[in-house]
Amino acid sequence: MAKRTITQRNFSLGELREDFLEADDLDMRAGSVRGGENCRVTATRALTARPGLAFMREMTTGTQDLIELRPETGAFFGLVINDASLQIINSEARLITTIFPVPWTDGSAVWVEPFRERTVLGGAWGMRILNYFDGTWSLDPFSFAEAAGSEIAQPYWSFRGDVQIQPSALGGTVTITATLPIWSAGYVGQRIRYGGREIQIASYSSPTVVTGNVISSLPPSYRITVASGASFRLGDTILGADTDFEGIVLGISGNNLSVATLSFFDGPDVNELVSGQSGGSKVTAKVQIAPLASPIWDEPLFSPVRGYARAGASAGGRLFLVDHPLIPDMVCAASTRDVTDFRVGAADDDAIVRQCGDNAPRFLHAINAGDLLLLSDSGIYYLSIRDGGILTPSTFNPILFDARASSPVRPAAVKDGVVFVEASGEEIAAATLSGTVNLKWTVRTISTYHAHLIKSPTKLCGTSKYSKQPEKYLFVVNGDGTLAAVSWLADFNPEGVGFLPWSTQGQFKSFSPIFGSYWALVDRTIAGSTKRLLEHLDDDYLLDCAAPVQVPQALQVNGEDLIVNGETLQVVAPSQLVLANETVRVYAPGYDLGEFTVGSDGSIVADDMPEDAVAGLNFQSRCMVWPVEVVQSERAGLLKARVIRGSVSVQHTGPLAIRCNKNTRRVGGYSFDDDLSAPPADQTRLYRFPVMGLRDHPEMEFIKEGPSRFTILAVTQEVQY
User: Fold this and answer.
1) 171, 280, 406, 624: which is deepest, by most CB within 10 A?
2) Domain residue limits at 711
3) Is 689 found in the same domain as 610?
């Protein structure tokens, strides 16, 4: 019988679905693993254990998310979003300030868009601005910019075109009567517009009657007598040839037109030609009359009555708002003058409020990826602003480039793309630049070969912009508390993206790129109760929820620090671990010290405990490779093969368990002639092993069982056929 060795040095595709077991002929299998729990792919395509998680602080069970803010150069903070408050922390997780109460009750539904010292927060409850000034934080109402005549630059919308409203006067306090029952107590304090001029609602009387205060004089109504009324119809807009008067015809009696003014409040001149859609006639007389009941009115686009934008983003110097509860296909963009200025117009810097898209999609997300991407429940659109493109009211033109739908889970921006959860809730897709002229963007489903690792995702965590590591990762937070770590080489080709499962003793609830690393919110059961902890990935730690067993403290005498030779004398004292009454693993550099039980006071007391010992929760890293069961023969074609031996090449790796079917062999640690007074050195070497037992589909797995380093460079299988 012939023998052959096959070596795998590429693990970039991560863990593939189990049904690849018989797919020996596929190139994808040669760059993947059968199992890879708690591992990550490096830039060199090797497989290494994930970092541990350093404990930072205990949070409330209502803590939902963590977002990095950089309000000024050199200043960076973490914004903690809770169900009942906001917290600002520094890079050491020390609390800077707490802000409460807040207008929301579910922090998971709050969207955040930073604008340097101002950060906009929004959701179904409304909008607020988090302001930073001279080291002080405040959560303030989102106040629209001032406009001419003491009005405000907020966006307006005509929700009820079937209703006419009639003010009792042009100024002062007025009674506003509607032709249908539309008013409610929620309108009190809001501003509506009659003919483009604002009235602030002061009180509610009935579904058809409210009172309000006119902000600036309302447009008057006129009875205009023309030479011939034959050319005019109800609802016509008429224009004056000389004065630029514009009005809407709301009544016709012979040659008398009842007109509500739209522009030029002085009305047309006598003998001026006024024209409608069918023709015109000269004015013979005009008389100002009481304000008419007019359909030309609108109300705030965002209000307690009509709802608020449930998603937001920034692009091209504008704040974008989407996912209005009543207008699904609406996109609202602030002016480039200020994020609070929504004054609509035709100028390049004016705000934009449009309905767009095919067949009224609901835009669920807006995200800046160089271009602005709009993800909806029935397609994905882009607004071109890349490469010097300027977004103005005249160039606003969302272009559909893919018909697939997005889920409500917020997308994550990556370099030159966006990753999102598809509407099924079980697939991950990437929208990336296509590199073609005809189709600027394209979408690919990237989780097809890793579908078993996607379990009803609740959050996507994008890459850390300020990470010092050469590798960049994206994380999928699953509904069952696990993670899928996503890596890619050049692009998001489905055959070049790797997924690997991560787990911990608890449940991951959130993962965030912040402070040049990744920070996690983890639910852990401690002493019988669930606690939500803030932890972050740390390459120096080999355990989860890890913290030093002992901490240095200043030695005090009579309440004052003891100074010796000009320096404070320090002693080592037990630290207060969050894992009280739990069994933890303890290690010091190079040593696995085993398991200890934390006291009820959070301390571990043991003789000869190293000063640099760290305690935490152990996690295992595993790599199971695909068995080679088919080989290509030049003469006979594909032949059935059997694995008889193997080897694994490791780098800077500690103790390792090699499991072949039901047989487990442990390697690493001390060797002959090692100095037993020093910790065992991590190994860079080749471990060989026999493969006995299962003839078909043998299992070969390499396991990091305790707190140690673990990197696999290559796996070789010797087969017989």
Assistant:
1) 406
2) 3-33+621-720
3) no
Residues 667 and 613 in one domain: no
DSSP conformation class of 349:
T
* Same domain for 625 and 690: yes
Strand partners for 225: 256, 285
Q: pLDDT-derived band of residue 498, with 50, 70 and 90 as boundaries?
A: very high
Q: Which amino acid is at 254?
A: G
Average pLDDT value for residue range 351-370 = 96
Nearest Cα to Cα of residue 205 among 190, 223, 221, 187: 187
Give the separation between CA 450 and CA 158, rounded to whole angstroms. 47
Looking at 300, 335, 370, which one is the last position of a domain?
300
How much is the pLDDT for 560? Answer: 72
Residue 479, CA distances (Å) to 89, 116, 351 in order: 27, 33, 39
Rounded-to-integer distance, Cα 619 and Cα 704, Å: 8
Q: What are the phi and psi torsion angles at 18 (to 5°)? A: -60, -25
Distance between CA atoms of residues 366 and 354, nearest Å: 14
For residue 677, the model assigns a pLDDT of: 77
Hey, which residues does 352 pair with through a beta bridge?
333
Please indicate, yes or no, whether the overall pTM of this predicted structure exceeds 0.85. yes
Residue 445: name the closest of 413, 422, 468, 416 by CA.
422
The total number of structural domains in the chain stands at 3
pLDDT at 86 over 80: yes
- State whether 594 and 627 are in the same domain: no
